[in-house]
Design brief:
Layout: E1 8-11, E2 18-26, H1 30-38, E3 48-53, E4 59-68, E5 79-86, H2 88-100, E6 104-105, H3 110-117, H4 123-134, H5 138-148, H6 151-175, H7 183-204, H8 207-215, E7 217-223, H9 229-237, E8 255-261, E9 264-270, H10 280-295, E10 298-304, H11 314-321, E11 325-330, E12 349-351, H12 360-372, H13 387-408, H14 413-431, H15 437-444
Helix pairs in contact: 4-5, 6-7, 6-14, 7-13, 13-14
Length: 451
């Protein structure tokens, strides 16, 4: 039985002129619309070519009509997809006719929201639809596909089943208060909770990597004035994005560009040069540079070949020494390439010429290798939780830790059960086993119309 009594329609392809546009319809009237327009409901999931005539009989376009019965549709209710020519005027005329026949305009994300509410997707899969649409790199695409296919949902179901087993053992002693929880049972329950806390923490550890996948790896290019930072940015981007001049201090503010490097998306940030004796404006630029360094996921420290090592602020040397950095010895085309590095040998140092492109392939390979190491755990399932998941997992972990602390002190069994029920509710939030309409409305409102 369809969950909704109204029928929605929207353009499912981007607005603008194209070869094809797709109008999506979902709801109990989808079959009626097909019958009125074509004279029959097309066979399920088979495209049918025909004229689209409006209610007055005027021809709008020749189109392809595909009908999906509720059992096999994306939304879990009867759906009709109309592929027409990609003239925005044609698509709008079709939508106006569908509205005249009784449909209403879909809200942003309403098709996916119906799929979730009708049980076709869990909430983590619904969120993965948006991640798939906005994936900027091969790794982000792979992670979104894994989540869309239920990797996170399966993991959460497995954790939930184990927690329910422990909770059932705890609540058995609440139902039979004359039975005290013996020490051996407390130890067994504690082992289960410790295992759950470990696995919850492992999932939680993927949250930062999830941010990198969705937003790109924040890669800050830093170094002394005139070391060739802007030239390096231009070489990596592939066009003249930043002004390059022999005069030091050309870059006074930071410049940001997204690029794809191997399977990764990088947010490249070119910063003002680190001058040990800056002027007033240069000093403001340096302050912004150091702010970007503090926030960086990866640092490209640019040094000039054949020149003494510049005086670097402690913020820079500390961040480079953590290992999430690549040292770029630039301007090897100008002469001697030796440079003394006061950093651990494990930090890769590549010699390049941003002007000629020499050494750039090796530099890109080093960046890719370092970015590969950012993936946390769960490589088998390639799970990378988002901020909402992270919040729920954090609360679940706290609940498990509180329950274990009470077990260790032989605390009241009712309070232990309360902590575990709270953890169970937090697990449920991730896949959507909750009844919070306001949260769901806010979540799906971030989707695009037609999805």
């Amino acid at each position: 039985m369809p969950r909704f009594t109204d029928t929605i329609a929207a353009l499912a392809t981007p607005a603008g002129t194209s070869a094809i546009a797709l109008v999506r319809v979902s709801g109990p009237d989808a079959g009626r619309f097909a019958r009125e327009i074509l004279g029959e409901i097309p066979p399920p999931r088979l495209a049918r070519h025909g004229d689209y005539q409006d209610r007055a009989g005027a021809l709008i376009d020749d189109a392809l009509f595909t009908f999906f019965p509720e059992a096999g549709s994306y939304t879990g209710e009867d759906a009709l997809e109309i592929s027409c020519h990609g003239n925005p005027f044609i698509a709008q005329k079709i939508l106006e006719d569908l509205f005249a026949r009784g449909a209403r305009s879909a809200e942003p994300g309403e098709f996916t929201q119906r799929a979730f509410l009708n049980g076709r997707l869990d909430l983590s899969q619904a969120e993965a639809v948006m991640d798939l649409i906005h994936a900027r790199s091969e790794r982000a695409l792979a992670a979104a596909n894994q989540q869309l296919r239920g990797a996170l949902g399966r993991r959460m179901n497995e954790l939930t089943d184990r927690l329910l087993g422990a909770l059932a053992r705890v609540e058995a002693y609440i139902d039979f208060p004359e039975e005290d929880l013996p020490a051996e049972d407390r130890a067994g329950i504690r082992r289960v909770l410790e295992s759950l806390a470990t696995d919850t923490a492992r999932l939680l550890a993927t949250s930062h990597y999830g941010e990198l996948l969705r937003d790109g790896i924040k890669t800050v290019i830093v170094g002394a004035p005139n070391a060739g930072k802007s030239s390096l940015l231009n070489r990596l981007v592939g066009h003249e994005r930043a002004i390059v001049s022999p005069e030091p201090g050309t870059t006074r503010d930071f410049i940001e560009e997204r690029i794809i490097v191997g399977p990764h998306c990088l947010r490249l940030i070119d910063t003002a040069g680190l001058n040990p004796d800056p002027g007033a404006i240069e000093k403001l630029g340096m302050e912004k540079s150091l702010e970007r360094v503090a926030e960086a996921d990866l640092i490209l420290l640019v040094l000039e070949a054949g020149q003494p090592l510049p005086t670097l602020p402690g913020t820079v040397t500390d961040r480079v020494s953590t290992g999430r950095a690549v040292i770029v010895v630039n301007k090897i085309d100008l002469g001697p390439t030796s440079v003394e590095l006061p950093f651990p040998n494990a930090i890769p140092a590549l010699k390049v010429s941003a002007l000629t492109g020499a050494g750039m392939e090796a530099l890109i390979a080093a960046i890719v290798q370092l970015a590969d190491s950012f993936q946390a755990v769960d490589k088998e399932y390639f799970i990378a939780v988002n901020a909402r998941h992270s919040d729920a997992l954090t609360r679940a972990k706290v609940g498990l830790e509180d329950a274990m602390a009470k077990l260790a002190m032989a605390g009241p069994i009712e309070l232990i059960a309360s902590d575990l029920r709270g953890t169970l509710a937090s697990y449920g939030e991730i896949v959507g086993k909750i009844d919070n309409e306001r949260m769901l409305d806010q979540l799906f409102a971030t989707f695009c119309i037609g999805k």
